[in-house]
Amino acid sequence: MMVLGLVSLPGMMTGQMLAGVDPSSAVRYQIVIYFTIAAGTALACMGIILLAFRVLFSPEHQLRLERLKKLDD
């Protein structure tokens, strides 16, 4: 997410402007793409948290440490 704002999106906006697109339209497109990527990242993180919660906790909300397995090297 840090690299996205510094490298990827300004390069995309510059490419659109060099192709002849209106600068305000290119900036709007850049903002929409950035928010879409941020929303996808947030949804993926929430999904991982909810799945981990379902696996690691019992229906009585007790932590089930035996479900954690240590991987051997």
Features:
single chain; 73 residues; mainly alpha; rod-shaped
- The span between the termini is 31 Å
Range of strand content: under 5%
Low-confidence stretches: none
Overall 3D form: rod-shaped
Structural class: mainly alpha
- N-to-C SSE series? HH
Helices, by number, come to 2
- The averaged pLDDT comes out at 83
Q: Give a short account of the largest sheet.
A: none
* Structure summary, number of beta strands: 0
Estimate percent helicity: 55-70%
Compute the CA-based radius of gyration. Answer: 21 Å
Mind sketching the topology for me?
Blueprint: H1 2-18, H2 23-56
Molecular structure report:
The protein is mostly helical and about 70 residues long. It has a domain at about 1-50. Helices cover about 70% and strands about 0% of the residues. The protein is built from 2 helices and no strands. Helix 1 (about 1-20) packs antiparallel against helix 2 (about 25-55). The radius of gyration is 21 Å and the shape is rod-shaped. About 0% of the residues are buried.
What is the gist of this entry?
With 73 residues, the chain is mainly alpha-helical. The chain contains two helices and no strands.
